[in-house]
Amino acid sequence: QLLVVVVAAVLGCALAAPLNDDTITKFLSNQDTDGTYAYDVQQSSGIQLQEEGQAGHYARGSYSYISPEGIPVQVVYTADENGFHPQSDLLPTPPPIPEAILRSIQFIQEHPTPEELADRAVRAQQF
User: Fold this and answer.
1) For residue 79, with 0-12 CB atoms within 10 Å meaning exposed, 13-18 middle and 19 or more buried, which class applies?
2) Each residue of 93-123: pLDDT tens digit?
3) Would you say the C-alpha torsion 102, 103, 109, 113 has a positive or negative sign?
4) Contacts of 57 (CB under 8 A, 6+ apart)
5) Rounded to an integer, what distance in angstroms lies between the CA atom of residue 63 and that of residue 46?
6) Predicted local distance difference test score (pLDDT) of residue 6
7) Contact 44, 31 (CB under 8 A)
8) CB-count burial class (<10 Å; 0-12, 13-18, 19+) for 104
């Protein structure tokens, strides 16, 4: 009886697993002793991943796929000490800063408060 339960459980798990016929069609990878690396992976579903860089210092690469809506998505990126910088037509972008706000920022920079002047003096000594 225990064997029947185990077989039924394994069969149930196998039938419940999602079917995924996606296979890796290209896999290139290189890693050198100086920390530089590169990889290029492609799958039969159209997913592509590429990256090169030096571990802990920088990376640049891209990935692409087809969205569930059928839209091709491509993202090109760099990553460095200043963070991750993706670029894609599908990424949201902020609206332009209104002219009135730009003028306000300029006025504030040209007319600092006494506290701002004191803070600038302290920062100048720190650097």
Assistant:
1) middle
2) 889 999 999 999 999 999 999 999 999 899 9
3) negative
4) 35, 80, 81
5) 10
6) 60
7) no
8) exposed
pTM to 2 decimal places? 0.59
Whole-number Å distance between alpha carbons of 100 and 84: 31
Q: What is the pLDDT of residue 54?
A: 92
Strands of 83-87's sheet in order across: 24-31, 36-43, 48-54, 58-66, 72-80, 83-87
pLDDT less than 70: residues of the chain: 1-20, 127
Written as one letter, the residue type at 33 is T
d(CA 39, CA 50): 6
DSSP annotation of 14: H
35 CB neighbour count, 10 Å cutoff: 11
Any bridge partners for residue 116, and if so which?
Answer: none
